[in-house]
Amino acid sequence: MQADFWQQRWTTGQIGFHQDQVNPLLREFWPMAGVEPGARVLVPLCGKSLDLGWLVDQGYTVIGVELSQTAVEDYFVAHQLEPHITDRGAFRVYATQGLEIWCGDFFQLAAQDIGLCAALYDRAAMIALPSAMRERYVEHLGRLLPSGCSGLLITLDYDQAILAGPPFSVPDEWLATFVSPGWELTKVAGRDALKSSAKALKAGVTQMDENAYVLVRKPQA
Q1: Listing from the earlier edge strand, what are the strands of the sheet with 91-96?
Q2: pTM for the complete prediction?
Q3: pLDDT of 98 above 50
Q4: Is 97 in contact with 53 (CB distance < 8 Å)?
Q5: Rounded mean pLDDT of 111-135?
Q6: For 55-78, what is each residue's pLDDT tens digit?
């Protein structure tokens, strides 16, 4: 998934991955992550998700990262917010009360850019990336986030042989191999997501699960 792919999807409005409501699993299971209000929450590949505003409303400072300028600008227009815009290195940063969205390539982000984030929320990043890029993403998270950082991860699990991503399938076996070495993972929910995916139904997928995990960054050597 090169940058041009996602830029084109946003430019042409091919954003079936965007949800028009706050994710129900976020509402239900975020409290299990034990993140204190006031903490900084990193939200990679955030798009124009309504989840951002929900987290702000719970009292968090939210640091979103998004490649598409169209997505970022759409977020602030939709919420009738006037952001303060600054250029910070390779990023353009849009900021309002409780929220910063860093517009640029997530892999160019450095820990000193975003400050000390005590939490992670990932509903869209892992499932947006094919396996090799996903491994790189997990490695980069390890450079950005400190030991003890906690949060919520939401994934999809289905037969990738039937339907090519994105969104990509991220099964438990993949998480055990590539995420568990650096994070403690606790699966807290799994629900049938097939009926909400016309694309998967049309392709002949017979089972698609949306799973939620509470995760905590392990101490670093």
Answers
A1: 84-88, 91-96, 99-103, 61-66, 40-44, 119-122, 150-158, 208-217, 183-192
A2: 0.91
A3: yes
A4: no
A5: 94
A6: 999 999 999 999 999 999 999 999
Asked if 176 contacts 170 with a C-beta cutoff of 8 angstroms, the reply is no
Question: Which one, of 124, 120, 135, 136, lies nearest residue 168 by Cα?
Answer: 124
- CA-closest candidate to residue 192, choices 159, 157, 166, 161: 157
User: 24: helix, coil or strand?
Assistant: helix
Question: Reduced to 3 states, what is the DSSP secondary structure of residue 69?
Answer: helix
Residue 155 tokens, joined: 């994934």
184, two tokens: 């403690």
Number of folded domains in the chain?
Answer: 1
Structure tokens at 108: 């160019």
Residue 20: both structure tokens together: 């028009």
Relative to beta strand 119-122, strand 150-158 is parallel
Q: What angle do CA 144, 145, 148 make, to 5 degrees?
A: 165
And the tokens for 24? 């129900």
Is residue 87 within 8 A of residue 103, CB to CB? The reply is no
CATH number (domain holding residue 163): 3.40.50.150
For range 126-152, the mean pLDDT:
95
